[in-house]
């Protein structure tokens, strides 16, 4: 692998894989990020009066939601050990308060799977995703839904598409592209037919699908999926957003890999202009994009342009 490929990989590691408006959908709409500074193993003890008998059901939901969202915030912050401990508590709470066969239990299993993905313990992550899907199937069977098809009713439940999408992400990491393709195609088709074809889950599925096709050197397909994700994000949150930048970098990297330098530079430049505006020229994201541009110039023998870019950064 040439240095440009390594650098492009670093860009994706830095920005992450998931896109748009919160990576893991909660079963209840999130108004704001949960508390991020939480002592490992300590869960927001005290402070709230005991609920009245008629409020106990809602109190259980709120308690589980807070645990889940705290674990997710810790995961996103890279505090994986603490995230794992809190997510274990969320899973225990879900099974105790709602039963073994409940969507909240499935979501907790899937969250733990994503934490183990961050720890690069992929076998453990796969096992947890399987448990999440098993719980889903049993839960939908109880509701009278088709547990195997995960049909038009099940895809509307918050978190269902997310579980399937991130299982596909694990397949991609493990180079199980056929399995990932089947999973993502199914999710995309279900969202197009019965879910929200312009929502966060669709953007995320398209983004992952694009990255998989780029890895497989199926560049035309990758570009199509990146651009579909880009348009969804633009319509939802505008262009001055980190997730919009991710898709621009995806397209730039797609062209870069093909040595289509003019097109690649155009998208890197667009991404850099937005990052400079929302993060600042001295941000790590801006520095990495400039480094990618510098490599792109070096590959073309444009050493003066590469040096000038580095000088401008300093």
Task: Describe the protein.
The structure is a single chain. The chain has a domain of 138 residues: Tetratricopeptide repeat domain (Serine Threonine Protein Phosphatase 5, Tetratricopeptide repeat), CATH 1.25.40.10. The protein contains 13 helices and no strands.
List keywords for this structure.
314 residues, mainly alpha, Serine Threonine Protein Phosphatase 5, Tetratricopeptide repeat, 13 helices, elongated
Brief account:
This protein is an all-alpha fold and 314 residues long. The protein has helices at 3-15, 56-76, 80-98, 103-118, 122-142, 160-173, 177-194, 200-215, 219-237, 242-257, 261-278, 284-299, 303-313.
Q: Roughly how many Å apart are the termini?
A: 28 Å
Backbone shape: elongated
Q: Catalogue the unreliable spans.
A: 17-39, 41-54, 145-151
List the total number of helices. Answer: 13
- The radius of gyration computed from the alpha-carbon positions, rounded to a whole number of angstroms, is 21 Å
Task: Estimate percent helicity.
Answer: 55-70%
Q: Indicate the CATH topology of the domain at 58-195.
A: Serine Threonine Protein Phosphatase 5, Tetratricopeptide repeat
Give the full name of the CATH homologous superfamily of the domain at 58-195: Tetratricopeptide repeat domain
CATH hierarchy class name of the domain at 58-195: Mainly Alpha
Q: Architecture of the domain at 58-195, CATH level 2?
A: Alpha Horseshoe
Task: Profile the largest sheet.
Answer: none
Output the structural class: mainly alpha
Indicate the proportion of strand residues. under 5%
Average residue pLDDT = 78
The total of beta strands comes to 0
Q: What is the H-and-E element order?
A: HHHHHHHHHHHHH
């Amino acid at each position: 692998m040439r240095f440009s490929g390594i650098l492009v990989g670093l860009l994706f590691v830095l920005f992450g894989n998931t896109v748009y408006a919160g990576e893991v959908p909660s079963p209840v709409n999130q108004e704001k990020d949960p508390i991020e500074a939480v002592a490992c193993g300590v869960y927001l003890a005290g402070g709230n009066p005991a609920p009245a008998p008629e409020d106990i059901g809602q109190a259980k939901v709120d308690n589980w939601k807070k645990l889940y969202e705290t674990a997710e915030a810790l995961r996103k912050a890279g505090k994986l050990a603490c995230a794992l401990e809190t997510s274990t508590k969320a899973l225990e709470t879900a099974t105790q308060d709602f039963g073994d066969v409940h969507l909240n239990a499935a979501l907790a299993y899937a969250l733990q799977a994503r934490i183990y993905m961050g720890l690069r313990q992929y076998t453990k992550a796969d096992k947890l995703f399987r448990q999440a899907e098993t719980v889903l199937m049993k839960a939908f069977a109880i509701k009278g839904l088709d547990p195997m098809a995960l049909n038009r009713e099940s895809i509307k439940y918050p978190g269902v598409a997310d579980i399937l999408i991130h299982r596909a992400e694990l397949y991609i990491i493990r180079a199980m592209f056929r399995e990932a393709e089947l999973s993502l195609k199914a999710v995309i088709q279900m969202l197009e037919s019965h879910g929200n074809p312009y929502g966060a889950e669709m953007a995320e599925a398209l983004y992952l699908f694009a990255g998989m096709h780029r890895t497989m050197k199926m560049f035309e397909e990758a570009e199509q999926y990146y651009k579909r994700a880009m348009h969804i994000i633009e319509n939802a949150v505008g262009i001055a957003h980190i997730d919009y930048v991710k898709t621009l970098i995806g397209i730039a990297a797609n062209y870069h890999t093909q040595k289509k330098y003019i097109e690649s530079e155009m998208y890197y430049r667009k991404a850099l202009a937005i990052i400079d505006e929302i993060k600042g020229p001295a941000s790590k994201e801006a520095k990495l994009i400039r480094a990618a541009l510098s490599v792109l110039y070096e590959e073309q023998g444009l050493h003066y342009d590469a040096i000038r870019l580095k000088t401008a950064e300093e």
